[in-house]
Fold these 2 entries.
Entry 1:
Amino acid sequence: MSEKKEPSVWEGFRAFLMRGNVVDLAVAVVVGAAFSNIVNSVVKGVINPVVGAIGTKNLDHYSSCLSHACKGDEGIRILWGSVLGATLQFVITAAVVYFLMVLPMARFLARQEARRKAREGTHEVVQVTELEVLKEIRDALVAQRTAGPGEQAHSAGPGEQARSAGPGAR
């Protein structure tokens, strides 16, 4: 009696890690973390100085006060500058990811799909044409067998006459 050996916990864990999705996700997290540093630098080095031409360089300093006495830690402040900075970082990140990663990949996949469909389409046409020719040959051979010697079994159609006459007859 042979017993089936169940995979160990480590083998299962290794199989889980080697799945394509997990590896792709890990790469995406690493690239995303590195990319967020670039976006933060662009916001701090380019966007904040442009905004600073109007007011302060640090967007976190932009706020509004809900109460009359907003001095120091007193009062209720709404820090809309922080929200604006985070929104700008998100929009820049989303735009770069879309235009540099998603859009080119979608175009690449669409071209691959079009090539695959074109290959399949020409392959199907060749198969159908060969099949039709073989059926016509079979029908002609059957017709010759059933007809007596010297008799013609049926009159050939216009396409069959051109084919039976040879290549130079057209």
Entry 2:
Amino acid sequence: MVSLPLGGQPTDAVEKLVLLKSPIDAISFAMLEYQVQGAPKTRTLFLAVDNPNSLPVERLQNIPHVSVAFDG
């Protein structure tokens, strides 16, 4: 599992989560979003997981906006 937090302040609560399959997908997605929209205004976490069983559910369950960006 690899996580990449962007936007907001380091002490801000995460407002948005983007789940991706691999670390390179997480970095690529974050950089594409940064190029198009600039730095996120709220704390956003880009998280790469290769197995849904490895998700830290208790840490992620209170994030209000979740996107899943897996291929195929």
